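### Sample
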Amino acid sequence: MAVPSEHAAYPVGLRLTGRRVVVLGGGQVAQRRLPALIAAGAKILLVSPSATPSVEAMADAGELTWERRGYRPGDLADAWYALISTDDDAANAAASQEAEENRVWAVRSDDAEAATAWTPATGRTEGVTVAVLNTEGAGRDPRRAAAVRDAIVEGLRDGTIAAPHHRRRTPGVALVGGGPGDPDLITVRGRRLLAEADVVIADRLGPRDLLDELPPHVEVIDAAKIPYGRYMAQEAINQALIEHAQAGKAVVRLKGGDPFVFGRGMEEAEALAEAGITCTVVPGISSSISVPGAVGVPVTHRGVAHEFTVVSGHVAPDDPRSLVDWASLAKLRGTLVILMGVDKIASIAAALTQHGRAADTPVAVIQEGTMATQRRVDATLETVGARVKEEDVRPPAVIVIGDVVNAAKTFAPGNRS
Ligand SMILES: C[S@@+](CC[C@H](N)C(=O)[O-])C[C@H]1O[C@@H](n2cnc3c(N)ncnc32)[C@H](O)[C@@H]1O
C-alpha cells in the first residue's frame, strides 16, 4: 500500500452558511480571505485589536462581528473553521493548539506545516469554483497554485479550455459589445459567449481578429453582406438573428464598441423580444472613451473638464434630419467626442465656432484607435477641416474637442498588452 506523503491533503468544499468561523488577526491575510468566507455565508467572528480599513468596512457593513482585542483561550469554542493570522507568534501557536484539541480545522498564515488545513488558490467562473492546492512542500509554492488556477479560470472564460455544459445551451441571441477593435478589449463574458456560439453575425467594426479563432463549424456572417431585398438592411439583420435563433442556434451578434452607443442595439433587442427570443446584452468598451484614452487623451481631467458629451456627427449641423443642438453644445466648456464625424467635421467645427466655441480649441482626430494602424492627427477647431483632408483621415475615427486634448504634459501611453 502506498504511504501517503506527509503533505497529502484531502480537498473538500466546506458549506459554511450560518456556521461559526473565527478569524484571528485583521491584517492583509484576513482582508484577502474574508470576502470568500462572507460569500460562503459564514457567521464570522473577527478577533483582533486592529484591522485594515477594508476589514473595518466589512465589520461596519455588518458582514462580520469584530471584537477589538487579542486572542484569548476559548475563542475557538463552537467554531467549525478558523483562520489564524495574527502578528503574535505565541498567540498563533496557542490558538493552533486550541484548534487541534477542539478538532477545529485551522489555517495558519505564519506556519503552513503547523496548520490542519490549507487554503487553495480559488477562482470562480460561470458557476464553477476552481480550487488548486499545491501539495508539494506544504503548499509552500502559492504562486504556482495561483498560476495553475489562473490558467484554468482564464481558459474556461475565453473558451480555450473546452468544458461543454451538459445542460442544453439556451438558444437565443447575445448582443455582444466587442470593444473598439483590439481583440484583447472585448469583455471576458463576450469572449466566452463567442467561443460557445454556433452562429456569429459581425459588424465591420470591432474585434474582427477574434473571428479567425473560431472553430470551423461556427458560421460567421458579415452583417454588411446580408442581402436585404424586400427589407431595409437593419431589418434583414434582425430577420437573420431571428431565423438562426429559431433554428435552435446559439447566436452572437458581435458589434463594435458598446451595443447601445450608436449601435442600433435596442432595435435588434426589440425585434428579438417581439419574436419571443431571449436576448442577452453584453456591454462593451465604447470607442468614445477608449479610443481617446488609447492615445493619452482623457475625456475628463481634474480642473480641465467636468463633463464629456458624445455626439454622432453622421449628419451635418444644417441637415434637417439632425437631432443635435450644436448651438447649445458650443456653449459647453467640457469635452465633445464626435463619432462618425470625419466627413462632416468642417461643417461641425464651423457650427461650433459660429455659436461661440473658441476657434483655437484643441482637437484630436484618432483613426482606427487601438488597432495596429492607429494614428492621431492634431488640430484646432479652425484648422481641423483642412487637416483631416490633408492627412486623408478616414473612418473609423473618433474626434475629441476640448482642452483635454492637451492634458497630458509628460505622459505617453505604453503598449503593454
Ligand atoms: C456606428 S458607430 C458605433 C460605435 C460603437 N458602438 C462604440 O460604442 O464604439 C461607429 C463609429 O464609432 C467610432 N469608432 C468605432 N471604433 C473605432 C476605432 N477603433 N477607432 C476610431 N473610431 C472608432 C467611429 O467614429 C465610427 O464611425
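Residues 288-406 form a domain with the Methyltransferase, Cobalt-precorrin-4 Transmethylase; Domain 2 fold (CATH 3.30.950.10). This sample (Uroporphyrinogen-III C-methyltransferase) is used throughout the tutorial notebook.
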